[in-house]
Amino acid sequence: MDLVNGSDDDKEHVWTILLNAQNHYLLHTEVSVGTQSSTLVHPREVLGPALREGASSLIVIRNHPSGDPTPSREDLKLARQLVDGAALLDLRLHDHLIIGNGTLRWVSLAQRGAL
Fold first, then answer.
1. Cys-Cys crosslink for 43: which of 37, 57, 85, 90, Cβ 3.0 to 4.6 Å?
2. CATH number of 17-108
């Protein structure tokens, strides 16, 4: 599934967008595919590609198949773990975006002050 149009809209996906020191796009990668209601993501799965590719910062994007982009407790916990882990590795997490499938609704955890 790509970041915009995919055929697996009934599953949760988590992607990272990797950026260089000038915040220019390096690449994106899918780090997890789950079920209709959840996906297991460990910080090393998100931060590992950033280290391997020499990224300076990243953006995490996930979808909610329900269409409701409201962050769950697990979403907020993962975002906090990613911020803390990234800081230890001299990386910056710019944002963690949640997109509601089939809607134009999305949530930025950075805008909400949750990072």
1. 85
2. 3.40.140.10
